[in-house]
Amino acid sequence: MKRVKVSAPGKLMLFGEHSVVFGYPCIVTAVDLRLSVTVEENAEYFFSLEAPDLALNDYHRSRQELGQGDLPKAASFLETCFSLFLKRYPQEQGIKVFSQNEFAASYGLGSSSASTVALVRALGEFYGVNLSKEDLFDLSYQTVLQVQGVASGFDLAAAIWGGTLYYVMPSAAGEKPIVQPILIQELPLLVGYTGIKADTSILIRKVQALRSEDPAQINDIFRQITDLVEQAKQNLVLGDFAKLGELMNQNQKLLRQLQVSSSELENLIEASLAAGAYGSKLSGAGGGDCMLAMVGQSQKIATAQAIEQAGGKIIEVKTNAGGVRLEKTL
Ligand code: MEV
Asked: 254 C-alpha vs ligand 1 centroid, how far in Å?
């Protein structure tokens, strides 16, 4: 029986969340926690999905049902993705999909995006359709837009290209994103999880609403964030971690003005700074999920302890990980 397994990495937003949704640049790094998708022939149904990490088992759809009606949240990305793939590359053979995650979906490390990218790559391999990185991005981005309504696609770029990237979203549907690899080594970062799952769509809408109320002020914040992104890009290459920490603190100040931080995030950020981190900020949508602290070697243990004492959970990750890859074909 034909079977294909593909894995893709999660991500951490380093600088530029939220403003990236409005066309400004951001910097993202892929992490070594991966999500894998296995696709194999299905003799019984057109589409079956098992995602035990999302408590989804025994989920089946006929060809006519595929992508129709209200999809359960746990199936929405992968089912939408398969349905869009078939519109572009019609196929007769049905599939079973098995999705497996090395990290909890609640961390906000990009599990939906990683699984979407892994599925598109696996479908290409399974059906013998040659897909470039740009094709992978385009189909994955259409999926995310259909499920989520609005998104920049930065997490898809991290899952596809891997490494650490300077990213600008496509200017219109079907256009290409700007993806520039920043060639660096491992970053000395600590990641603290607040224990609270953020709702990205709600937070994006909140920023959209603020911008409609006062476009001049919010655009000015976006421009200041962009200035930090450009400085961070240079300092990443220079490996100036103290300066990068300072830029993180400034980025966090602006995120507070966008009202996307939370008391839980602020507690962890404050604790890490008091313990001697160079700098600290939320990472991603805000409202919960994770914070990052840039920290020197001598301060690392004390800072990790301080984050845990403040109620955070340290998530062990390595930055700058490889992008989507084929694991096995049988
Ligand atoms: C969420 O992880 C980051 C946001 O910038 C949304 C996006 O870029 O799609 C808030």
From this structure: 15
Q: Tokens 């002020």 belong to which residue?
A: 217
Separation of alpha carbons 102 and 135, rounded Å: 26
Ligand 1 atom with minimal separation from the 18 CA: 5
Count CB-CB contacts under 10 A for residue 329. Answer: 12
DSSP letter for 175, please.
P
Single-letter amino acid code for the residue at 234: Q
Q: Which residues contact 98 (CB under 8 A, 6 or more apart)?
A: 37, 38, 40, 49, 50, 51
Model pLDDT, residue 290:
97
Tokens of 132: 């470039």
**Which of 12, 14, 17, 111 for a ligand 1 pocket mutation test, highest count of atoms within 8 Å of Cβ?**
17
Let me know if 214 is a catalytic residue. Answer: no
Output the pLDDT for position 1: 82
- Residue listed under structure tokens 């926690």: 33
pTM exceeds 0.90 for this model? yes
Strands 95-101 and 47-51 come out as parallel
Contacts (Cβ under 8 Å, ≥6 apart) of 67: 79, 80, 82, 83, 84
* Residue 288 CB partners (closer than 8 Å, separation 6+): 108, 194, 195, 196, 197, 198, 262, 264, 265
Chunked mean pLDDT (size 10), the chain, 330 residues: 95 98 98 96 96 92 95 94 98 96 86 96 97 97 94 97 98 93 95 94 96 98 98 97 98 98 98 98 96 96 98 96 92
Three-class SS state of 15: strand
